[in-house]
Each structure stands twice: as C-alpha cells, then as structure tokens.
Write a structure and sequence with these properties.
3 helices
C-alpha cells in the first residue's frame, strides 16, 4: 500500500508589513496633531519681535478678547481657584497665558499678580513669532 503525502501548503501571508504601516501612521499623526489644550473660544496671540520656543507641559490659561477665561481648554467661572490649587501642590508648574492680542491688560495683569503671590515660579505669555 502506497501512501501519498498531501501537497505542501504555502505559508500564509505575514502581517508584518501591515504592522509597520500602522506604526508609521501612528507616528505621523502624533507628530502633526496638537497635544495641548485649545481654548473654547478664538484666541489670536500678539506678534512678538523676539522670543524663544515655549517649554512643554504645565497649565494653559486662555483669555478671550472679551476677558472670558479657560483653563486647559475648559471654560470656567473660577479659573484662578483651579490654578492656585495646582500651584499650591507644585509651585514649579509652568503657567502659560494665551491671551487674545486685543485683550485688555486689565484682564491679564491681575492674574499674573495672583499667580506670583501664590508662589508660581514661571509664568509665560504666549505670542506668535514675527514673520520672516
């Protein structure tokens, strides 16, 4: 009696190439996406003549043209309370103030004074770099 072997099957397609494509897409979207909080209203920062890149991390405070306030993208009635609590826990926390270029200083200067009185070590104003 002669037994015949079944024909050898070809190896299934590997999905390694697909995993590479998914990884590259993930990296691509992480690089082009914004990771920081955006304000719930339009904020166009003023244009700066000089400056340096903004450090990452910290708290972002947004001030609209009308003086509306938001903390880390959430509009709130008591933003200073939220920020002062965070600063009390970690005074080295960077606080970024992203104010509209037409916002009056009467909205911004008291916030900076309160932050400094609470012990904030670093307060940065967000500006748009000057064009070429």
């Amino acid at each position: 009696m002669r037994l015949t072997r079944p024909p050898a099957r070809q190896a299934p397609e590997t999905i390694i190439a697909l995993i590479d494509v998914v990884f590259f897409l993930l990296v691509f979207f992480m690089l082009i996406g914004r990771m920081d909080a955006t304000a719930p209203f339009e904020v166009t920062p003023p244009v700066a003549a000089t400056g340096s890149d903004m450090p990452a991390g910290g708290i972002t405070m947004s001030v609209s043209e009308d003086g509306d306030l938001a903390v880390d993208g959430i509009q709130t009635d008591a933003p200073m309370v939220m920020i002062l609590e965070k600063i009390a826990q970690a005074p080295e926390t960077l606080v970024r103030i992203n104010a509209h270029h037409r916002a009056e200083l009467r909205f911004i200067l008291p916030m900076i004074a309160e932050l400094e009185a609470a012990g904030a070590r670093e307060v940065a104003l967000v500006v748009t770099p000057a064009g070429p």
